[in-house]
Amino acid sequence: MERLLAVIMIICLSVMLIPAEAVYVIGSGVMRPAYQTLFFWETRNWHALEGEHFIIKYQDGDQENARLVLEEAERFYKPLGEYFSYFPEKKTPVAIYRDKPALNKVFGWGNDVGAMGVYWGGVIRLLSPDDWLGEYSGDEKEDAFRRQGPMAHEYIHLLVDYKTRGNYPRWLTEGLAQYGEKHCAGVDIAAAAGEEQTAVLEFSLADLDKKFDDPQSQEYSYAVAEDLVNFMIQEYGAGCISPLLEELSKGEDADRAMEQALGINLQNLLKEYQRAV
């Protein structure tokens, strides 16, 4: 067992020490089982709070936060699963980290990365609510976490990853995560991130995918992804998402999947979007 874990660790570490923007691609598909095995080994001495669909791993001092995360996750499990037409076969592992350095260390990131949550390889890792909601307590803290927390956002990334078998562009999963957390899970994105941003796509989607973790382009990138997904849903209906993800699961590229599911290729969709904004 230890020899197997050593091999898994070498493989996983070799792809974890990468720029943040590559996480979504390399952490998908065939890497999941190996990464989850490593995750449970790394957190073997942590406490565990198990619900019907999630396993929350946490350390001393985060007992109440683990309960809060589990309750929130179970609350939106059904509506998000129904919208994206996917329910994981196994319980989803979630880990809570006390501060940003502890979370960033997992991926070899520097202090310039300030994520509240990360999905990678079938595992969701969250920054402890105490780190970013320290001024709140009791019911006020729980309400703030439900309105602004990252759990729904990261869980949608997991659903998209599993549903498409790891075949998806970053702009799509980021746009869907923002749409889903707002319209299916009731998360108040505007309250969490300030005033909503609106932006015109100024370059290719391939270039956009590289800018989500650039601090100078982050707000712009997320705003464009959300706007583009919102436009797609407004034009083709909320029911267009599941067929699109189904096409991606077959190995189709985004352009071909869009044409099969929506009857329009990606290039023409972008032209319509640009005219609209």
Write the topology of this structure:
Elements: H1 2-16, H2 23-26, H3 31-42, E1 47-50, E2 54-58, H4 63-84, E3 92-97, H5 100-107, E4 117-120, E5 123-127, H6 129-132, H7 138-148, H8 151-164, H9 170-183, H10 189-193, H11 205-209, H12 218-236, H13 241-249, H14 254-262, H15 266-276
Parallel strand pairs: 2-3, 3-5
Antiparallel strand pairs: 1-2, 4-5
Largest sheet: 5 strands, mixed
Q: Note the quaternary state here.
A: single chain
Termini Cα gap: 56 Å
For the residues shown, what is the average pLDDT? Answer: 85
Q: Which strand order do you get reading across the main beta sheet?
A: 1-2-3-5-4
Overall radius of gyration: 18 Å
Structural class: alpha/beta
Order of helices and strands: HHHEEHEHEEHHHHHHHHHH
> How many domains is the backbone divided into?
2
The CATH architecture of the largest domain is: 3-Layer(aba) Sandwich
- The 3D shape can be described as globular
Q: pLDDT under 50 segments (min length 5)?
A: 3-27, 191-197
CATH class of the largest domain: Alpha Beta
CATH topology of the largest domain: Glutaredoxin
State the share of residues found in helices, binned by percent.
Answer: 55-70%
- Counting DSSP E segments of at least 2 residues, the number of strands comes to 5
Residues in β-strands, percent: 5-15%
Put simply, the count of helices is 15
